[in-house]
Structures are given as C-alpha cells and as structure tokens.
Write a structure and sequence with these properties.
One of its GO terms (molecular function) is ATP binding. Keywords: ATP-binding, Nucleotide-binding, Transport. Helix content is about 30%, strand content about 25%. By secondary structure, it is of the alpha/beta class. Helix 3 crosses helix 4. It binds adenosine-5'-triphosphate. Adenosine-5'-triphosphate binds next to helix 1.
C-alpha cells in the first residue's frame, strides 16, 4: 500500500487562469495553506472558486503561476487528495459500500482492511445500515454523506470540497458540517472548502479566503478565532460570530 504523510501544505503563487474562450477566471492569486489547516473560500458567483479548486486538485492547469501540494506524493499524477463536489457523483450501478470502497481502487489494500474501513467510515457518517443500499435509495443528504465517506475512507492528507453541501437543506447542512468537523478532528487533513455559505465558512474554517468578483483575486484572508471542537449550532451564539459574518458580507459587496 502507498503511504503518504498525514497532512500536506499548499502553496499558490501568482496563479492565473485564462480559458480559451478569453475569460480570465483567476488573476494572480497567492495563498499559503498550512499543514492540517481548514480553509474556506467564499466569493461572488463566477469569481473563479471552482477554477482554483480544480487547479489545486490537478483537474485543470494554470495559465501562469503555479499551485503545489507540498509534503505529499512526488508525482503530480499521484496527488494524494480526494475531491467532493456538489453532486455526490456516486456510481448508480454500485451499492453504497462498493462506491466507498472504490476509493481504494488500485491502492493495493487488503480486502479485509477495505471492508473494515468502509464499515467504520459509513458508521461515522450515519450510514452504517446502508452499505448494501443503492444510491437511488438515498436522500440527497445521505448521498452527500456517502461522498464524504468516500473522500475520508483512504485518509488522504488533502481534501478539496466544492460546495459539497450546497444542494442540501439548512438542517442537513448543519448536521453534515458537524460530521465533517468530527471526521477532520479524528483524522487531520488539509481542507480547502468552497462555499456560498458565509456562516458555513465561519463555522468550519480556520481562515476564510474572500475572493473578488471576476477575474478572481484574493481580496482578504480572515482568521476565525473560535476554539475547537466547534458545534455548528452553538457557534452561532459565540461572541463575535455575527460580527465576523457581517464583516465578510461587507467584503463581498
Ligand atoms: N471550462 C470553462 N471554459 C470557459 N470558461 C469557464 C470554464 N469554467 C469556468 N469558466 C468561467 O470562468 C469564470 C469562473 O468560473 P468558476 O466556475 O470558477 O466560478 P465560481 O466562483 O466557482 O462560480 P460559482 O460560485 O457560480 O460556482 C466564470 O466566468 C466561468 O464562466
């Protein structure tokens, strides 16, 4: 089995992305993300958040500048990261457990270990009884739980999340935010989390990166001072929570 470090840092330097259509989606973005840090990215629609995440995840290339995951696997083709998108993108022809186990494809992990880890992670996201269910038998929130389980099951040092809870109702979102924080506390990793939810960003992140309208640049990086472990509901009553949310809203105006 391949082994990789438990966490990795990310360096983004002068990153610019121009699509062939002529759209400049990112313009000279610079950011350092520390080992094990949870960073949320917010910004107006179309400011290049997904573009940035796709470049970090190795799914697209930059026009200028570069982004590097440091302390991770040597080959760019073997980036030890997992990505969760707004759509859970489970394979409809595989049961939930098989979808989660698929993350181990070609990693050479013994079958018994895979079964144990899949069962553990499904239990952690509240899907312990659904390993043999088909994706179409799950609600939207349950599908997203399965997608989060698939991202965590191999314990990669880096996790990229692109509006993973964006399509869900508020109550499910808050529940999943808590589950994500518990998973992250159990197995630390560097997380880059794109969201439209300012409160969600402040709840989850160590720092919130605020991007400007297109072409996207990094307008501000706001540290979130609240202690951990956090609770996605109780944190709203923390002194300073509302002020921080308003400050970020003001930056987005
Ligand atoms: N494959 C592509 N080809 C051409 N232009 C693209 C492509 N993908 C994105 N864009 C453009 O790049 C800009 C940034 O898009 P991106 O999806 O990164 O923004 P975003 O901040 O994630 O938006 P949203 O919050 O609405 O999801 C937009 O103007 C978009 O039209």
């Amino acid at each position: 089995m391949r082994t990789w470090p438990t966490v990795a840092s990310i360096a983004i330097e002068h990153l610019t992305k121009r699509y062939p259509s002529g759209t400049t989606a990112l313009d000279d973005a610079n950011l350092d993300i520390a080992d094990g840090e949870f960073v949320a990215i917010v910004g107006p629609s179309g400011c290049g958040k997904s573009t940035l995440l796709r470049i970090l995840a190795g799914l697209d290339t930059a026009t200028e500048g570069h982004a590097a995951v440091e302390g991770a696997a040597p080959a760019a083709s073997a980036l030890p990261s997992a990505t969760v998108f707004q759509e859970a993108s489970l394979f409809p022809w595989m049961r939930v457990g098989e979808n989660v186990a698929f993350a181990f494809d070609s990693l050479g992990v013994p079958r018994a270990d895979i079964q144990r880890r899949v069962a553990d992670v499904l239990a952690l996201v509240g899907l312990g009884d659904y390993a043999r269910a088909w994706p179409h038998e799950l609600s939207g929130g349950m599908k997203q739980r399965a997608a989060v389980a698939r991202a965590f099951v191999t314990d990669p040092p880096v996790l990229f999340m692109d509006e993973p809870f964006g399509a869900l109702d508020e109550q499910t979102r808050v529940g999943l935010a808590n589950e994500l924080m518990r998973l992250w506390e159990r197995s630390p990793k560097t997380v880059v989390f794109v969201t439209h939810g300012i409160e969600e960003a402040v709840t989850l992140a160590d720092r919130v990166v605020v991007m400007s309208a297109r072409p996207g640049t990094i307008k501000a990086v706001i540290p979130v001072p609240f202690p951990r472990p956090r609770d996605a509901v109780a944190i709203r009553a923390e002194p300073g929570f509302g002020e921080l949310v308003v400050r970020i809203w003001d930056l987005l105006r």
